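Replying to the earlier thread about multi-chain prediction with a worked example.

Input:
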Amino acid sequence: MARWERRDVVVRTNATGHALTAPVFVARGRQARPLAYVQANVHGGELQGNAAILALFELLERESLRGTVILVPRANPVSANQQVGDYVAGVYDLLTGNNFNRGYLYLTGPSRSASAASYVDVDSFAAAHESSPLGEIQEGFREALKAAVAAVEAESRAWGTDSRLEFALAIQKMSVEADLVLDLHTGDRAPRYLYAPEGAVAAARAFGFPFVLEVPARFGGALDESAFVPWQDLSDAFRRIGRNDVPRLVDAYTVELGSMNAFSLEAGKEDARRIASALRHYGVLDGEPDAPPAQITTCSVGDYRSLHAPGGGLGDHAVEPGTPVKAGDVVARLVDPSRCRSLPPRVADAAVEVRAPEDGVVLLFHAFSSVPKGARLFSMMTRTRPL
Amino acid sequence: MARWERRDVVVRTNATGHALTAPVFVARGRQARPLAYVQANVHGGELQGNAAILALFELLERESLRGTVILVPRANPVSANQQVGDYVAGVYDLLTGNNFNRGYLYLTGPSRSASAASYVDVDSFAAAHESSPLGEIQEGFREALKAAVAAVEAESRAWGTDSRLEFALAIQKMSVEADLVLDLHTGDRAPRYLYAPEGAVAAARAFGFPFVLEVPARFGGALDESAFVPWQDLSDAFRRIGRNDVPRLVDAYTVELGSMNAFSLEAGKEDARRIASALRHYGVLDGEPDAPPAQITTCSVGDYRSLHAPGGGLGDHAVEPGTPVKAGDVVARLVDPSRCRSLPPRVADAAVEVRAPEDGVVLLFHAFSSVPKGARLFSMMTRTRPL
Amino acid sequence: MARWERRDVVVRTNATGHALTAPVFVARGRQARPLAYVQANVHGGELQGNAAILALFELLERESLRGTVILVPRANPVSANQQVGDYVAGVYDLLTGNNFNRGYLYLTGPSRSASAASYVDVDSFAAAHESSPLGEIQEGFREALKAAVAAVEAESRAWGTDSRLEFALAIQKMSVEADLVLDLHTGDRAPRYLYAPEGAVAAARAFGFPFVLEVPARFGGALDESAFVPWQDLSDAFRRIGRNDVPRLVDAYTVELGSMNAFSLEAGKEDARRIASALRHYGVLDGEPDAPPAQITTCSVGDYRSLHAPGGGLGDHAVEPGTPVKAGDVVARLVDPSRCRSLPPRVADAAVEVRAPEDGVVLLFHAFSSVPKGARLFSMMTRTRPL
Amino acid sequence: MARWERRDVVVRTNATGHALTAPVFVARGRQARPLAYVQANVHGGELQGNAAILALFELLERESLRGTVILVPRANPVSANQQVGDYVAGVYDLLTGNNFNRGYLYLTGPSRSASAASYVDVDSFAAAHESSPLGEIQEGFREALKAAVAAVEAESRAWGTDSRLEFALAIQKMSVEADLVLDLHTGDRAPRYLYAPEGAVAAARAFGFPFVLEVPARFGGALDESAFVPWQDLSDAFRRIGRNDVPRLVDAYTVELGSMNAFSLEAGKEDARRIASALRHYGVLDGEPDAPPAQITTCSVGDYRSLHAPGGGLGDHAVEPGTPVKAGDVVARLVDPSRCRSLPPRVADAAVEVRAPEDGVVLLFHAFSSVPKGARLFSMMTRTRPL
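Result:
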């Protein structure tokens, strides 16, 4: 039986002084580690991860918990409440334009909100731990990362903490502790798929999602990168001084649980089952992961390409998200009745056929069926291969 | 074969002087009347009517057109382009809060943008036409309505035309000419249904939609009301002076073609078939309307009730839109993980079951699965009966 | 010395379950009545009333308080936090388009959110109190109004309270108790001015603002109307049964404290002094009101007219807000460089001169210097006279 | 007399197919070069640059034009029309969160929208032009930059041009031709000041603004950087191969003309006079620049620091923008009435004094007087020195 705790963390204080908080649930098992950090709904319109976490509440009561799981549903009340009409777009902060999943701190390199003094120099660390045992390296490096977080926070005091940094600090104080980080998102209109660190093949298979995008160890501001890139940087630094026995000790995934706006408690149970399989792979839960599906398609995130609308109009999909296509196949029609300049007006004049520029899998369509020219109409995996 | 014309009408000029226009397509048949005015997408996020109009382009080439059809897809480029993130909420003007379908002029009574001088007094008109033949009444009244539109426009010149009135004038100059007005909308998440004027039973059946909301002849600012209420007012005025042979000579419908954000050219063909059936009922097209479905459920629009969320949360539907329920049936669950105050956390603590307060048909769910307290969670037909 | 209390009222609960509250401060003097209710910032961008209330905190400690004052700064945290970029537009709810100052309940007549059962029929009340003494009428009517508020609330339970009604109930439960209601707003770009009930001349003079708009006793949804119209209705009902000794027993004012976005603690002290003068007029504070200024200009709110931009462009004011003008005077220039079609380009081609259509006082300019065609460019008092 | 041309460039096509265009005015003098490119209002709420350009229209008719001036007022109709309520925030694209002044292409290095193939390698260029005369270098490098722009455009065809890139291409096709680029912006609430390239002291003095922020030659996405950094990169590359006679041949400035939302034709004349002085410095106009003011204060842009609000509240400035302060001086008060927890309530409890963390000049305050915690409350020049 897990031992549970609950607290609330403040992620922003609004203009009238109200604190916006996220609920944090901690389930503790037989031992402290491995520790998994799981959050959902950092983008305000991406809801299904909350259903997964709710299902995990009950799953963790049924399964045998070895390590610790931190669960943060509704992690971003700022974004969840930036509603216009009935919709929550949720990706960008209406106040600052910031993508809520691009403002995290790079703890082993320079990032926007931190000075040079406030990150860990992996080469110095490796040099200082040249002959330390792995456990000591792991523990020492984690302490160093936590010290970097604290340094950024201390440094921000004189001039005040900007709201983006406040959010990053609130989340990373939790995630920096983790051996495994899962950031539950959704695509716009998409099947379930996974962003996985390069090389984490067996683990990625444990999730059992049919599509996997491989993420190189380059920091771009997302939570998954903020969690695993420093540990890859550390591994690389040790390799540079000739020590090849220090693997990347933390993995992190962005888990895309279907489409924006969708929310189903029932589907959340299946999502929780897949996450539990991964937790077993990482030893957070006892037992073996589920057998992976017969086929998982993967490509590098660099080969995940977006097609931008060649004109304004109404999008009508010719294929379902998750469908393999050949270069030249019609993927969508983009319809603008004002293009009917000759009479009688004809659908053919209004509709532009948009074709796949390359072979691949159409993974994601724009969330809304009306788009301006230059908006992402769909995204495709290209140069795919089996995982 | 229809004779076609195309023009563009300006519905707003933006701050940089760019005119936002709607395309107007006119198909002329053997005779000028009956004249049907069909527009789509006045609410920027309600897209499917455009697919119906595109399908009507081709249907009107195949069928025998007796009267005239004016077709205005993308009628409201203002709203269609008020996009935040990927979404167009589209009901309310981001500049003024105005519902884009509540600002039309009441041509036989006082409305927001017009003085007493600028509407037709139906009792005076009836008195003056006490013994006129019906055709003369019809023609004379339409001219009077057109004069009222012109008077409002003239009157607005001294102090300038506000943007809401400019939109109303642009549309009503077209719709005032019509014998039949179809305003193509969608529900939030809904099946196809119809707002029909009280008493228009046979016509409403000609559309063949399974659900019909009956609209009394009271002006509330919507286009359908702006079109049929004046003619009902006229009929009532004649009845008051003892003449019972003047029926309402114009009908108008708000046609709800499914859900916001959905857009399908294929489904548009079926929508066009239903509209064509109604056009045949009204004699705009030659031929007979299709046989209506076995069952059409109706209620008065006054018995169409909305349930407001009893708390903030994530909505998970227990029934599909269009489903009959009994009072006390669970219609939706409203989920907020922060309600899990006791540990271990349980889904049951997070989820509030929301039940139907009365018997009826759940017709519409909120467009987005995350709602604040007090938002419309769903709407139900109550006191239903077969049409 | 006033006795103080403080509490917080919930005005909305957001999608993540956070309650948005307004702080309520009550200062109690020697006796319970007269009771003044003063709120600020119902429109999220109209800030200066908060400075006035802060200054009143200290003024009420210095002056002799006879009755009771309820002070609610930041009354609308919903609106205050609907920020886009750096700005809070604040008039319309981004979720529903509702003007936050148009959703109050009409307690002696039908309003949007209430059934016929839930308001007071003034004629029945007058008949039942035909020979009651004034004090009894006052007390009985207030109880009846409170019962109406309670009835609306009870009635809303079955289908849930919509967010607009929830806000109205939260505020009106407080304001219905008051003998005097002050709703502190600001104009867009404007001097200080007052909306005063018709006939409240001496009281309006006590405020000492140079401009007064007279509001007839017709309910349009604003707080001031919600407070004084029922009491005027009561007075009228008694007059209809021949009793002329029942005056309107409650007054209410919308007090416009300069421009949106402006906030000055220093100017708030002067604003508080003016409000204190009115509180003395009404006997809430001991003492006499200040001598009014030499000239106060007034007109009926029906003669307060808005000029809508004749085109899109950049507005440059030719006069300051609060300036008298003659018909034909240039009030503003509306500039759009894209109108320079002939070369060399000339300012004269870009700028349209906008002139006063009538004699009057230019009271208010649009808050932003870029406007689309049809936006309110400025508003003027016409048919002015000294108060 | 200048020879004038006018055209319109499309910067975006919206969802209903309407092209949003910016007007381009070209004034040609005696010779083609030097060529100055001047645009205004890329951020939709920063209006005054348009007044400056209008005044330049007439100034260019009065003065002797040696080279060419391209003038683009209202350069960003996308942003100018992203209005919510009465306000245009204007910095961030409501669709994508992008800062409209951070998406330009880095033509001598990798940028977001371009592959490695589509920028100029300055070292290769320098090597290939090791012994070329300066004029040939200048011309050749400009051709290379134009080829890079064309390459990015060609490369974007297969997958479509995203809206940010489309904007960058539309602007940079014009600005890449220039010897001098002026991007007319405003601060939030600020005096007039200048972002000037490091080292351009005499030129910066020619503008005559009292405050100058020095910008290092590092690309961050802004237009001024996109224009001058490539030429600095080229100069550096020549220096690396031992040739020190190739200066930076293009300068670019972001010119901050006061506060957002302000628009004055009259003030625009003075702004145009200052710009004309700079145009004379650069030889675009004949004659000598005006004498600079007695004192110009400067600091590096790295020493231009922002203070983030320590809590939510209403901001009241203690000093005017442009005021020198000492560390510890009160710069603003941040007021939240809900902080009055003890009774009687006191202003002192509501108001937090915000002090300057260092000596410097308070240059800019937040555009709106209500801010959440973590918003930029004000920005200060620190480590200032005379220019």
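Chain A touches chain D through 48 residues (CB under 8 Å).

Feel free to reuse this layout for your own posts.
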